[in-house]
């Protein structure tokens, strides 16, 4: 039993090293790691956040959700991907309401190899900085725009700019619809020529489209469904459920499908006064599950909403 677990662990390490080497190679699609998503709360809900869209995490998922912010809020997230001490992943986001007739936010994602000696001299990191703005056209329709700057550093270096556009429609008090157009100008990643590139000097992250529904039929429960990958052909169906059994406590679960693969998610949240702590466990069909931790702090007067 112990030997089998050890074999699985070393196999997982080998696979991750192979992925990093590949991403450092000639055909790297910079920004691919962004697809992990950000925030323990969204990930616990199976990545169904296009219509939920709350908190500083919404800069990544759907910037139009910034329009729901009524307080300045700071969020930090950390994860050791697949619990192997190989890839460190974190996110830091801040939102501020009532600026230039709308709400603004800034966020930064980082993914990089750890100092694990098993990796040797293998190094890879990706950074994404997001600046977002949301504006309410009416009480029922909100628009959001994100400007992204991507940096890649490994055996080669690259940099690119991209734009995301989000729409959030509040149909009723218990029903919302969200639409997200990622990289709508086809984000171009340009490589530094002095790094000795032998392949293409530019990669492109193609535009993609997703839509989601948020429905809260009961005070203590809400349901979510997202469908993404519409334009790229990488269709993925996500579903999530949130339950608030007692005040200040939320329990979350989710499922997402891509092709023949199914991943389950689970998590919980605890809020106390200005603080919010969230945890998520994201399964994987081959590797060990990943734990994600988030902590948030709200400034100013606190207004309660759905969790």
Short descriptors:
3 helices; mainly beta; 10% helix; 307 residues; 14-stranded antiparallel beta barrel; single chain
What does this structure look like?
Helix content is 10%, strand content 53%. It is mainly β. It has one domain: Beta Barrel (Porin). The chain has a 14-stranded antiparallel barrel. Strand 14 and strand 15 form a beta hairpin. The protein is globular and about 50 Å long. It starts with a helix and ends in a 9-residue tail after the last strand.
**In percent terms, what proportion of residues is strand?**
over 45%
Order of strands in the sheet with most strands: 1-2-3-4-5-6-7-10-11-12-13-14-15-16
**How many independent structural domains?**
1
Distance between the termini: 41 Å
Which percent bin holds the helix content? 10-25%
Task: Briefly note the CATH topology name.
Answer: Porin
Q: How do the SSEs run, as a string of H and E?
A: HHHEEEEEEEEEEEEEEEE
Query: What is the overall number of helices?
Result: 3
Mean pLDDT across all amino acids:
85
Structural class: mainly beta
Weakly predicted, low-confidence segments: 18-30
Give the radius of gyration.
Answer: 19 Å
